[in-house]
Design brief:
Elements (H helix, E strand, L loop, with lengths): L7 H6 L16 H9 L4 E4 L5 H14 L4 E4 L5 H9 L5
Parallel strand pairs: 1-2
Helix pairs in contact: 2-3
């Protein structure tokens, strides 16, 4: 029995299994996403709140809960995140 399913996706993402958790709005927080990552898939936290501080908190929790790869679903239509990311970076 193998402890890994070797596919192009699993190699690319650095996971044991080619399973990617859907970033379900308001549900896919660090607790769920870290469980998926710890089980060998790619856990993804969602950011539908658009609140940058909440997103940072969830990323911090993910780093506390797992040392495995994970993803962050960024909603590019969120004005709060867009505003925060552009205001903190220097403009050329």
């Amino acid at each position: 029995m193998t402890d890994r399913i070797d596919t192009r996706v699993s190699r690319l993402l650095g996971v044991r299994y080619p399973i990617i958790q859907a970033p379900m709005g308001w549900i896919a927080r660090a607790q769920l996403a870290s469980a998926v990552s710890n089980a060998g898939g790619l856990g993804i936290i969602e950011t539908s709140s658009g609140e940058l501080d909440a997103v940072r908190d969830e990323i911090g929790k993910m780093r506390d809960f797992t040392d495995r790869p994970f993803g962050v679903n960024i909603d590019s239509s969120s004005s709060a995140i867009r505003r925060s990311s552009t205001s903190s970076s220097p403009r050329a």
